[in-house]
């Protein structure tokens, strides 16, 4: 157990039958009334961010979360299969636990979050950016736009679809932001 005086960014607490990581917090002492702690909490399991206010000195249950390095092997009807990069132990995860599964390609390095007490996998996180090859996109025609930020659909090697600028062609590698699945830049050969 910890109190609100022990709060620090990155600390994981149990709240409303879920695990939350403290993104930011602020101790507030108004002129009238009792002090309180305003927090922004991010769910470890879903990634959803909520705001909550705790009375000053309130007790909360803490939890330990461990991040472990894994490599994506393949997926099939049993789930997504990963191998620990140090122990070579293999595990299988359902798609719901994986952030942006459509951007996952074989041999990609990921981090899987585990609850320390139960050894239960909570979430699989991809790196912030991944580099993928475009397998198909329509050719862009010069003068075919009315704005400078025109985008067209492109299919990636993993089967995911993203919007890319008109100058991007087939078989080019691009950098994708895994947080929102958006195009970042073209990778030079």
Keywords:
189 residues, SH3 type barrels, OB fold (Dihydrolipoamide Acetyltransferase, E2P), 5-stranded antiparallel β-sheet, 16 strands, flat
- Helices, by number, come to 0
DSSP strand content: over 45%
Strands of the biggest beta sheet: in what spatial order?
A: 1-6-2-3-4-5
The total count of strands amounts to: 16
The amount of helix comes to under 10%
Largest sheet: 6 strands, antiparallel
| Terminus-to-terminus distance | 53 Å
* Overall 3D shape: flat
Structural class: mainly beta
Query: How large is the radius of gyration?
Result: 21 Å
CATH architecture of the largest domain: Roll
Question: What does the oligomeric state look like here?
Answer: single chain
Mean pLDDT value: 90
Query: What is the fold-level CATH name, i.e. the topology of the largest domain?
Result: SH3 type barrels
Order of helices and strands: EEEEEEEEEEEEEEEE
Q: Enumerate the spans where pLDDT stays under 50 for 5 or more consecutive residues.
A: none
CATH top-level class of the largest domain? Mainly Beta
Quickly count the domains.
3
């Amino acid at each position: 157990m910890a109190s609100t005086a022990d709060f620090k960014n990155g600390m994981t607490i149990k709240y409303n039958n879920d695990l939350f990581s403290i993104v930011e917090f602020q101790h507030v002492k108004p002129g009238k009334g009792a002090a309180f702690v305003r927090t922004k909490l991010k769910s470890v399991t879903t990634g959803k961010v909520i705001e909550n206010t705790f009375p000053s000195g309130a007790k909360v249950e803490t939890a330990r979360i461990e991040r472990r390095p894994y490599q994506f092997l393949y997926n099939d009807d049993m789930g997504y299969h990963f191998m620990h990069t140090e122990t070579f132990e293999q595990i299988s995860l359902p798609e719901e636990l994986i952030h942006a599964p459509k951007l996952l390609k074989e041999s990609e390095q990921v981090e899987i979050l585990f609850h320390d007490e139960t050894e239960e996998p909570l979430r699989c996180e991809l790196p912030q950016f991944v580099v993928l090859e475009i397998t198909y996109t329509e050719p862009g025609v010069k003068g075919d736009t009315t704005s400078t930020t025109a985008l067209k659909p492109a299919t990636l090697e993993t089967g995911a679809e993203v919007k890319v600028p008109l100058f991007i062609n087939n078989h080019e590698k691009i950098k994708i932001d895994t947080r929102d699945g958006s195009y970042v830049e073209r990778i030079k050969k």
